[in-house]
Structures are given as C-alpha cells and as structure tokens.
Design brief:
With 136 residues, the chain is an all-alpha fold. It has two domains: 30 residues; 105 residues, no CATH class. It is 69% helix and 0% strand. The longest helix has 28 residues. The mean pLDDT is 77.
Length: 136
Amino acid sequence: MKKIVLCLIAVIAIKSLYAQNNMDTYYRTHPVWITMMNNETVNYYETVKAFNLFWENKEKPTEENELFSATDDEKESKDFISGKKAHSDDAKKYAFEYKKFIYWQQDVLPFVKEDGRLMSHQEQLDFWKHQHEGRK
C-alpha cells in the first residue's frame, strides 16, 4: 500500500513540474502579462513572473527615465536617441504595454496580499482610510 501511495505522489509531483515548465514556456512566448495586469483577480507574483519570463533574453523598450537621466555628454552625442530606440519587433510592438506594466507594478505593490492576490477596491479604500487615521 505504501508503494502505491509513494508512486502516486511521485506521479503527481512530476506532472506538476511538467505543467509548471509548460506555463513557463507559454509565458516566454506569449505576452499574457498584458491581459493579466488588467484582471483584478490576478495573482501579482504570477503576473510579474509572466512579464519577466516574456522579456527574458529580449531587448526591452527604452524607458523615459533612461532618456531624462542621461548625462549632458550622452545627450550631445549624435546617435544618443537613435541608439535608445527599440530595434527588436517585440520591443516596438509592446513598448506601450511594457511601460504600462512598469507603472502597474509600482502602483499595485502596496495593495498586494501575502498570497499574491490584490486587494479589492473596497479593501484598498479601507487600507487608505486606516493609514490616514493613523496620521491624525
């Protein structure tokens, strides 16, 4: 009986590892993080994982802070702007969503629960009220 239970546990563990690997592969090839960040019931950590896996080993779009934080010498070089422009298809195609995700990631971080779920709008409002009551 113990052997059957151990074999069953081993099969389940192997299948879950295989399923995890399939999701990672899917995340690397499909920009599901775009729809995930627009879903209020999404797991924050899973969305960040999907984003990171998609952009792993890919050229990322240029962010505004890269342009604004450049030194004067860098800005004066004639190929500064052209060198910062995205060259890969994914970087061009998903530049807006990339920047939107970076903002979303920072914006919702204070409202992430320990298990990765996002607070509902009512929970966010209650959290905000509780913080402001403490300031009085």
